């Protein structure tokens, strides 16, 4: 006869310590549901009075069988018997709520826990609960009220800010972590370096690197990759290469990061050399390596090399091409004007082409004025973003099909698809200055516009002619030219000229791909001012110097 059946027949012969043993036995035998059933039976047929150990066992059972309803009932019992402040009971209940995304209940429990506990462990659980669903602001509310914050707390918030693309917040949090007296670890540094890379915050990234050296931090492959990535994305490919040549290169991620950095800077020949070196050191490439190689080919017009790399993936390394590999090869062919071959490749793919692939083809249709193929491409796209409407509208405008262009904008408006706002920024004097097209919100607006108009005047004297066909509206030539004059990247360059001395290198970042008109303007301005202008857009880097661009107009 089992303990429980015995207790049913002799309800007052119970010895209380044995009850917890019964519940524990069921748990250890892998029967959490039986533990919960035994508990209910004991409550009904005995004079059993649970203690905190009983509730701790029951919550373990709830966690193992994911019984949220039972856990909430136990929560009510704990409140009634005054055990909600017991350190053996409340933490597992908090974990259970967080595991089931019941953050409202978890918050109520956490606020009550702050009255008797300063352990950052509980707050860290709450942070992870909110951050895993991208709720950075709610996580920050918890973070602010945590009486004690450990390194896990800070690292969670920094990483969460990076994942939410709140890059300034991530860097501010790192600065506060350093000021708090805690010593950042490898996870702290890898997260903040990622923020610097994505934001193009070169000065801050260099300070972080200096701090790593001062702390004599052990550099593993994660930090090596993060440093190479940061310098490459902040325009210092020379520093990225220097770090790459001094760190251990026994992990594929370090090689992949360096190849990707060279690709973004349009250094195709260096990519080819580095890949040969990688093979000579017997480092086996993976799928990411080939995405980087094919991207380098697309940026540098290396069509034959792209074909060879794509073939060697399967023949030499048994890597099945995925949509990213097809996308990079389609982009390579499209940029080279081989639109028919690119379209044939898309139709013969073993995987379903995504929007990125169709967009690469559509972009090439605009460049090479292939209206019919552009229309076919748009028909194949499952959904259209604002950029797709812009590309097709540009194709129509170039062909003087103003009615079709206007109809396209009406469709976009009806579908409530908003145009992606172009944003450019520069890092000067330890601060980041952001600009939108036609922006007049900056304190130095009047001076910025004065400098910009003077630069445009000098550019025209050197042969610059605004590419007014890029303006998709049927308006006068003067209005089209004015529309192009005040693009965000031009405002950013004008501000840099205003605030820096002659000969100083100018570094501008943009969230979208720079337009053809701004590209031509930058080339001429670099010649007029005898300055190097580095532009980091969504796709790649452009280094403008003496009237030429590093992309060789292949972008």
From TrEMBL:
InterPro entries xrefs: DYW_dom, E2_motif, E_motif, PPR_At4g14850-like_plant, PPR_rpt, TPR-like_helical_dom_sf
Keyword Transit peptide: yes
Record's signal peptide: none
Keyword vocabulary terms for this entry: Repeat, Transit peptide
Stretches assigned to the DYW domain: 463-555
PROSITE patterns: PPR (PS51375)
PPR repeat residue intervals: 150-184, 251-285, 286-316
Name of this protein: DYW domain-containing protein
């Amino acid at each position: 006869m089992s303990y429980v059946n015995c207790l049913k027949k002799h309800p007052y012969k119970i010895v209380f310590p044995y009850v917890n043993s019964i519940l524990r036995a069921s748990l250890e035998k892998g029967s959490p549901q039986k533990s919960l059933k035994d508990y209910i039976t004991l409550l009904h047929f005995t004079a059993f009075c649970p203690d905190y150990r009983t509730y701790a066992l029951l919550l373990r059972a709830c966690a193992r069988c994911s019984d949220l309803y039972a856990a909430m009932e136990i929560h009510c019992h704990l409140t009634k018997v005054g055990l909600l402040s017991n350190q053996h009971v409340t933490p597992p209940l908090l974990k259970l709520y967080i595991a089931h995304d019941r953050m409202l209940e978890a918050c109520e429990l956490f606020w009550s826990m702050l009255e008797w506990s300063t352990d950052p462990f509980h707050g860290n659980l709450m942070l992870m609960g909110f951050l895993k669903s991208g709720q950075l602001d709610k996580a920050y509310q918890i973070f602010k009220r945590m009486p004690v914050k450990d390194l896990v707390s800070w690292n969670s918030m920094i990483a969460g800010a990076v994942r939410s693309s709140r890059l300034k917040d991530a860097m501010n949090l790192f600065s506060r972590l350093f000021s708090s007296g805690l010593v950042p670890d490898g996870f702290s540094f890898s997260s903040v370096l990622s923020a610097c890379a994505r934001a193009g915050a070169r000065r801050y990234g260099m300070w972080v690197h200096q701090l790593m050296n001062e702390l004599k931090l052990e550099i593993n492959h994660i930090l090596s990759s993060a440093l190479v990535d940061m310098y490459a994305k902040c325009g210092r490919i020379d520093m990225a290469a220097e770090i790459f040549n001094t760190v251990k290169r026994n992990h594929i991620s370090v090689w992949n990061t360096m190849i990707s950095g060279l690709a973004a800077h349009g250094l195709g020949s260096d990519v080819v050399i580095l890949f040969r070196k990688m093979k000579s050191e017997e480092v086996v490439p993976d799928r990411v390596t080939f995405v980087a190689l094919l991207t380098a080919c697309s940026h540098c017009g290396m069509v034959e090399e792209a074909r060879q790399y794509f073939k060697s993936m399967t023949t030499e390394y048994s890597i099945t091409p995925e949509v990213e590999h097809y996308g990079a090869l389609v982009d390579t062919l499209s940029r080279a004007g081989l639109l028919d071959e690119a379209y044939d490749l898309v139709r013969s793919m073993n995987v379903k082409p995504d929007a990125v692939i169709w967009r690469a083809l559509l972009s090439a249709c605009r460049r090479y004025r292939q209206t019919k193929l552009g229309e076919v491409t748009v028909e194949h796209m499952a959904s259209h973003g604002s950029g797709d409407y812009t590309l097709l509208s540009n194709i129509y405008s170039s062909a003087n099909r103003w009615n079709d262009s206007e109809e396209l904008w009406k469709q976009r408006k009806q579908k409530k698809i908003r145009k992606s706002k172009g944003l450019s920024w520069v890092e000067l004097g330890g601060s980041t200055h952001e600009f939108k097209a036609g922006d007049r919100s900056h304190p130095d607006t009047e001076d910025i516009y004065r400098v910009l108009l003077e630069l445009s005047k000098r550019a025209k004297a050197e042969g610059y002619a605004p590419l007014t066909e890029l303006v998709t509206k049927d308006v006068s030539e003067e209005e089209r030219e004015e529309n192009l004059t005040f693009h965000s990247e031009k405002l950013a360059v004008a501000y840099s000229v205003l605030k820096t001395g002659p000969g100083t290198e100018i570094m501008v970042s943009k969230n979208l791909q720079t337009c053809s008109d701004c590209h031509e303007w930058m080339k001429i301005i670099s010649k007029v001012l005898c300055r190097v202008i580095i532009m980091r857009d969504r796709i790649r880097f452009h280094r403008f110097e003496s009237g030429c661009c590093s992309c060789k107009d292949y972008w």
